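Homework help thread (please don't just give me the answer)

Our assignment gives two proteins as sequence + structure token strings and asks us to describe the second one. The first is just a warm-up. Here they are:
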Amino acid sequence: MLWVARMGAGERVDVPSAPFGHVFIARGGAELEGNGSLAAGDAVRLTGVDNLSLVAEDGGAEVLIWTTGAMR
């Protein structure tokens, strides 16, 4: 599944729960709960994603979030 968000400054988006996830910051910057600040071009791969939030920094952010199930 692919989610796309255009976030205003301080706006919060929850990363959907999934066995595997990938967060990509296309524009701006955001703080990923428990993982620090991410800037444009940064990406994070996640395993066992559950209840993480992403908060846009002062200039806002455009983000792509992919989630997948287990590969067999």
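The one we have to describe:
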Amino acid sequence: MSNKLPPLEEIEIDSAEYKKSNRRSFVKAGFFGLMGVLGVGWIFKMENQRELPWLLRQVNNMSDSFWKANFSKDARVAEATPDGKPFRVNGDAGLEETVDEKKWRLKVEDPELPEALLLTIEQIRALPSTEMKFEFKCIEGWSQNVQCRGVQVSEFMKAFDVGQRSQTSLSGVVKTPYEYAALESINGGYYVSMDAKSLLHSQTLLCYEINGQPLTVENGAPLRLMTAVKYGVKNIKQLAHIKFSDSPPADYWAERGYQDELMF
């Protein structure tokens, strides 16, 4: 077995080739890294559409279209048994620290009403109640099984004859829902847009009780929206104003660039 070393010239040549290879790899890595940085920078410097760069807004719109095409008002979210823990308090946008239930009124506006309805919590609690158990999902990534009681929005609309326009047809006058409703908190500091399909879903309630207990102020007393077909950001607390229309109303988080539908 020979221990003879290769000529010095060969070692120097190999070393030079190794350095060239390293330089080429370094230049390539630097080039593609720079392109990546510039690409990301380009995305975020593109023309904004409602506070999101154009490309991201298009992806967002595609997601909206998918959910609109695949969401059925007859599909129900699976029932989930509550875990026995107090319902998590999350988010305080638009909340008042104290609420006087005796003075509180739910203001309901409908284009066909000569003036707005002003309803007490007793009038709402007097309607037939519905209980539902589901997995409440927050857009932040957490979830909690919850049991809530209230009146279905669809039943509320029937009881007070609101949220539907009158149209004349060959068979007579028919009622069809307005496309949207704007919902606002007591002080107007938080507001959401709800589409008719979600609002009329059987798992969408005007809620006044959670896990067998009346709502706390932090969780939306005296009345809040609870829906199994939307993320938590749509489940507005301390609800005090509902306005029906055919035009998309303002939405607190949509104005900040989030997905309009926020359903799953």
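TA reply:
I won't write it for you, but here's a hint about the kind of observation we're looking for: DSSP finds five helices and 14 strands in the chain.
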